[in-house]
Amino acid sequence: MKARLVQSREIAPNTRHFEFESPEWNAAFVPGQFVSLTATVGDDEITRAYSIVSPPGGNRFALCANLVQDGHLSPILFAMEPGGEIDFKGPYGAFILRRPVSDSIFVATGTGIAPFRSMLLAQLNAHPDRHFTLIFGVRHEHGLLYHDELTALAQAFPNFEYRPTLTRPPEHWHGRTGRVQQHVLEALGERRDMDVYICGLREMVDDVRAKLKDIGLDRKRIVYEKYD
Ligand SMILES: Cc1cc2nc3c(=O)[nH]c(=O)nc-3n(C[C@H](O)[C@H](O)[C@H](O)COP(=O)(O)OP(=O)(O)OC[C@H]3O[C@@H](n4cnc5c(N)ncnc54)[C@H](O)[C@@H]3O)c2cc1C
User: Fold this and answer.
1) Model-level pTM?
2) CA 100 to ligand 1 centroid distance, Å
3) Does ligand 1 have an atom closer than 6 angstroms to the CB of 138?
4) pLDDT per residue over 12-22, tens digit each?
5) Which of 32, 54, 78, 99 is most buried by its number of CB atoms within 10 A?
6) Please, are residues 202 and 228 in contact by the beta-carbon 8 Å criterion?
7) Radius of gyration (Cα) for the chain, nearest Å?
8) 158-161: long-range contacts, CB 8 A cutoff, minimum separation 24
C-alpha cells in the first residue's frame, strides 16, 4: 500500500510527527500497533517498523520518529515533503491492552511514547474504572514529546496520571528526575495485580523487565515492545 505524507512537524530536536493518509488504510487498527515502511536505497529494500501514534479512525494515521544519524530509513522519512509517498504495510503487532484490562503502568522513553499516545487518546474513556499511570523518561525537558497534551489528558481524566522524568533536568525543573526504572517500582509499590507495559530501546526495556521480575511481578503482567 502507499501512504501520502499530508504534513510533518518537528516536536523536539531531531524528532518529527508525521501525518499520512491512504485510501487503503485499515482504520480499525488496535491502539499500540505499528506499520512497517519500506523504501528502496540503491539495490536494497529497507523496511522499518513505526508505532502508530494516532487513535484509530478515518483514512489517516500518524507516526512519530527520531532521526537516527547514519540510519537507513529514518533519514528518508525526514527528507519527505508533503505529497510524497512511501510504501507501507500493516497494521501489525500485539503490543495492545490486555483483556481484561487491569490498572496499568505505561513506561516509555523517547519515541516509545507513540503507542501509549494512541492507547490513551482512544481508550481512556472506555475504562473509567481502571487507573493508568504513564512514566515517560527523556533526557532533556524539550524531549518530552506531546507533553502539553498528556498534561491536559491527566487533568481531564481522574483515572490517568502522567509522570514525566528527566535525566538531565534544568534548574527550574521541579518534577521527577532520573531514569524510569525507579519510578516504575514506586508506582507499583506493594501491588502485584497491575499490568506493566514497556516501550522503547532494548536496554531500558530489558532493565525494567529484570527489575519487575526481581520484585516478583508475574511475567504475564509485563507487556513490552523493543524498538531495536
Ligand atoms: C515494533 C517497532 C516499533 C517502532 N516504532 C518506532 C517509532 O514509533 N518511532 C521511532 O522513531 N522508531 C521506531 N522503531 C524503530 C524503527 O523501526 C527504526 O529502527 C529506527 O527508525 C531506525 O531506523 P534506521 O533505518 O533509520 O536506522 P538503522 O540503520 O536501522 O540504525 C539502527 C540504529 O538505530 C537505533 N534506533 C532504533 N530506533 C531508534 C529510536 N526510536 N531512537 C533512537 N535510536 C533508534 C538502534 O539502536 C540502532 O543503533 C520501532 C521499531 C519496532 C521494532
Assistant:
1) 0.97
2) 30
3) no
4) 999 999 999 99
5) 32
6) yes
7) 17
8) 159/124, 159/127, 159/128, 159/129, 159/130, 159/131, 159/132, 160/120, 160/124, 160/131, 160/132, 160/133, 160/134, 161/131, 161/132, 161/133, 161/134
Say if strands 195-200 and 176-177 run parallel, antiparallel, or are unpaired. Answer: unpaired
What's the 103 CA to ligand 1 centre distance in angstroms? 29
CB 32 within 8 A of CB 50: no
CA distance 188 to 192: 7
> Which amino acid, residue 42?
G
At residue 211, the pLDDT reads 97
| Residue 61 Cβ < 6 Å to ligand 1 | no
Q: For residue 164, is the peptide bond before it cis, meaning its omega torsion is within 30 degrees of 0?
A: no
| Residues in the chain, pLDDT under 70 | none
Q: Tens digit of pLDDT for each residue in 44-66?
A: 999 999 999 999 999 999 999 99
What's at 20, amino acid-wise?
A: F
Please identify which residue in the block is written with the cell numbers 481524566: 157
